[in-house]
Fold this protein.
Amino acid sequence: MARQTVKQSAWPWALLAVLAATGLAAALGLTQDPYAQDFMARNQGPSPAHWLGTDQFGRDLMSRLMAGAWLTLSVAAGATLMALLGGAGVALAACMIGGWVRAAVFTVFDLLRTLPPILVGLAIMTALGAGTVTVIFAIGLTFAPLFAYIASAAYDRERLAGYAMAARLMGGSTLSVAWRHMLPNIAGALITQAAIVMPRAVTTESVLSFLGVGVAPDTPTWGRIIAAASEYAEEAPLSLAVPVLTLACTTLALSLIGHRLRRAERLDPVPEATP
Amino acid sequence: MKRSSFATHLLSAALMAALPFAAQASNEPQDIQRGGTLHIALLGLDTADPHRHTGSIAVQQVYAETLTSIANDGQVQPFLAERYETLDDGKRYVFHLRKGVKFHNGREMTADDVKANFERVQQKISSGWLSGAMKLVTSVKTTGDHTLEVSLEKPYAPFLNLLSELWILAPESKGWDETITHPIGTGPFEFGQWQPNVRFSAPRHDAYWQEGLPYLDEVVFDLKGDRDNNLSLRAGDVHVAYVGNDKLDGLRKNGFIIQHLKDTAWYFLSFNNRKPSGLMSNPKVREAIASAIDKQAYMNFVAGEAGIVSNQPMRPNTYYWDESIERDDKFAQPNLERARRLLEEAGVDPKSHTLKVVSWQNDYSQVMVQMVRQLGFNIDHQALDDIGAQKLLGEYQWDLAPFHSGPRADVYLRYARFLSDGPSPMLWGGIQDKELDGLIGTAVSAANPQKARDGYLNAWRHIMDKQYTVGIGHAADAIGVAPQVRGYETGYTWSQNRVDGGVARTWLAKQ
């Protein structure tokens, strides 16, 4: 049977490329200063000077969105990476040790998994205080169980595979077998999971920022931009609509990419094509 | 002279009490509609024990009243006291209490009750707004069922004004010996149900001592504090609410009435004075930061055209404000060149320093952050709610704190925060300065208004010289009032029940 292919569209990749490019431009200082305030130009609509208008401080909305792309995506990517390395790493180590250690570690993961991500994020932020590193840690910890389950399932499956058993029979230690033989075979599943987690990390970061527990108030993350604009939705609706749409399109694009990778990895049952 | 303490001293022997109440009787509107629930969203309620409060006074005055009251014009007037006399050059006060004032449990208030409240505050409240005054009280004696005599160690000018925050409660209030959990007061509304940071309801006190009042059945306070009151007003969820300056035009267009508090809030930038970092111990760095502040732009952002620029804690053209200090303000205009030169002279490269800023979540803190950031400093800004900010401020691990402080019943209550043992001193960086304590002490015990004024101004000059804090300006807080609300008038402070106004005289017109 020929493997089913999902109809491919380039726009998610194109959007991500544009966001990455604009974020990079902002990071390199090629835009207007996203922090610069102009009290004579508060809550203004689009103009040649400010293509997407300004916020309640007279700050250029476009440059803040561009800077926000960099901040939001880098925080989400950092958190996803942390969740991957932390969740999968701890889970694999626990699987290799086995016994009560594995049971204890997965009890903690189970506990984390039962709590809503936003609640876990809020609790961690409240305990550790605001800051970019704390946000990455909080979101990373929230999503770590997702990688842990994938890693443990893949480990159990691959452990019984012929190549792994052969490697062990040839005298390979548990660690070397896992590192040299099994990890390359489960990496694909973990990377696919990362693509699925990434849009959720973007949303979680934005919600934490929206609630005011993320980064500093004037940091141009999308959540902060949306929270600030929501107070002036009547006076400056565009200031709210543009970042909301940007966030929605980005999470949609990331989700579609994750979905395709998931299917490509055959993690989902794929329905037969109807003749 | 606009402020009250000494005028009151001079006039206190006169029978003042009858005037506002006589005026009320004659001016009472004819079409009053009784009943209904007034929903209010102003400031919070930090404790059920009024004697222990450190926050705002926007709620507790509806159920707990005081011997004196700050009237709409800022003058102190008798309230639960029918009249008072000041004797021995301000070292002795005799209060003649109103007769027929009933607590919410139906018992009549007597001088013994008032004495018990003085003693409770004196013995059980170690810090707070009244602690300074109570330390000077040498005796509280009852000389009759409705007469009380209070003696002080020495004259204390703000005494009568401060008594407007010494709430008189029945000693049988639950928790009296430790922390009161259900206060029994004499106010027009009773202490009903309190859900901290959510809601407080106060049902009508049927046996209120002011005949015919209150008009309403109940007052309900929204204590959540983080909502957009502009929308709440327009949705009909609240009738009276604290609103930001940038929402006023929209509310007016929708038929709401905008009132302002009669006194202003003071806006300032404080430095950490108790545990300053090495960087912030350098006077040139403090001067550079002060030079970066564009006070006019800042106050315009806060309150538009209603913002008043001033380098002093009392608003311009009032008795305890000084024109020459204002005129000589070297930080009146921003001067970034000078600021950068000062940093250079101090050998400070701002790019290699991160300043920790603590604030509430008000937008104006971001304006301050950006003004300081212009000098090249990195900024670590923590914007928190009131409790979170107070906790962080109290740890003194920060550099800058842009805040504002609401209207005060007396000039002393501004300066009390600068004292080494003052109430909640963290907003001003926890100043520890014996010389300053002495200057404020001189003002407080001065023999006449002019000397008190000189004393306070000397204290302020000292604060400016030491660069403890930078005065930026003043703005009156705005209150949105729904069209069906009648008889509501903002006061000098946030108090919602006072000698000549408040919710006792408010009623709702049926739509």
Confidence is low (pLDDT under 50) at residues 1-26 of chain B.
